[in-house]
Every structure is written in structure tokens, then in C-alpha cells.
User: Fold this.
Amino acid sequence: MSKLLRIFLEIQEDRSTFGNCEDGDRFESKFRNKIKTVFSEIVHDSKNNLATLEISKLEELKYDIVNTFYKEIKDKIKDKESLELVENPFKKIDSHFIFQPFGSQDFPDFLIFTKKFIFPIEIKFTTNKKSKDLNLDSQKPMWNSNLPKPNSIYLFGVSGQNITFFLGSDILDSNTREILNGFFRELDNPTEKLKYSLQELKNNFGLYPYIRKAFDHKANKSTYKNSLNKQVVESYFSENLDKRERNVLKFLKENS
Assistant:
């Protein structure tokens, strides 16, 4: 059994304890500490390129070579349409992880290096101060402008209630993802036209459209129906939870 598979099995078996956190930072730290029990951490600091330097030493490769590999990994991991697993180009970095590999505000939260592949893992968490009154089915992770990526693993926790994990491909199929991502790509084109149209005009106060790119869950756009045959947004803790978690375990068993 792979180390990464064992981690998710242990989380699944003790989900109530693992999910007992007050906020997202503690939830993230708990997962980080869990990984540290079986993987070695490579500390990342984008300002000083610490991860690249450490990998360079461990691999006994020139910094420029490792830096090129690291940039290629980043491009592949962040590709919004890619369905492929990212192969590990290193020989000695095969039981390691990097926390916030591309910055604190960027996807993913963790990069896990195994012998063959590199797995991105993203942590999602919602805080609830009145857990007694919580409708668990109403809790949804925030996606902002990054839709669930196909071969990425997401760990989602609701404060004091429950946790689950899933593959991005089980939340959104590739055709739907392509169309939704394409919407924002098209939105960028008029912005360039507007910028050109305004460049010779007076605008002392710098008024300009502000468009926040984000995805939300909308019931009237959902294709899911509940037991009452009502169109609703599927809960991340629905009857399909077990299937989604089994898919993650199967995915890790076959690839990690």
C-alpha cells in the first residue's frame, strides 16, 4: 500500500477527529502534520527559491536544470484543461511534499512527490460558529476562478461537522469544465478592446470596470435532483460521497 493511499484511508477511518478544527488554517496544518509522518517536507519560499535549491542539492543537479523542471511542473499542474497525471522528473525526490509550492494564494496547497507521479492536493474548509444549527448539505467550498481540476485531490472539511475528499473529475466533467473556463477566456478579449479605446481619453479618477472571476453553485443550473425530485445543487456530503471517496482510493492505489 502506498504512503499517500494510507494517509487517506486513515483520514477516512477517523474523519470526526480529523475534521475537528475551528478554522481552515488549523485544518490545513492538521493535514500537513499528517503528511509529515510519512513524507519528507521540502520547504518552499518563492522569494529565495528554497525548494529549487533543496531539490538541486538532493538530486545533485545544477540549479538551472532543476529550476526548468520546476517551472514545467508548475505549468502542467496549473493547466486548467489537462487530464494527464504529471510525471515526476526527479529520481531521489520520490517521497516528499511541498506546502504552497507556487505561493500561499495559488493552487495547489500541496504537491506530493511519489516515484512516478506528482499529486496536487487542495484543502477546502468552511467555518461554522453555530454547528448545532448547521445544514451540512448547504455547505460548499469556494472555487473562485479555479474550477476543480480532473486529476487533483480535494479535501473538504466543515468545521465541527464532517470531512470528505474527492477527485476534481467527480465534481465536473471535462466538457462542462472546458465551456466554463472558456467563458472567462472570452471575457478577457473585450477588456483589451476597452483598454485600447480609453487610452487617449481623459479619466482623472481612473474609473474602470471591475470584474471578479469566480464560480458559484446555482441550483437552477444544476442537473441534480433530490429525493423529492426537486432541482438542487448536489451536496458534497450526498449519497454519492462514498463513491467519490472510493474513486480517490482507487486512483491512488493505481497510480501512487
Q: What stands out?
A: The two ends are 9 Å apart (CA to CA). The chain has a mean pLDDT of 90. Helices lie at 3-13, 15-18, 24-36, 50-59, 63-78, 174-198, 241-255.
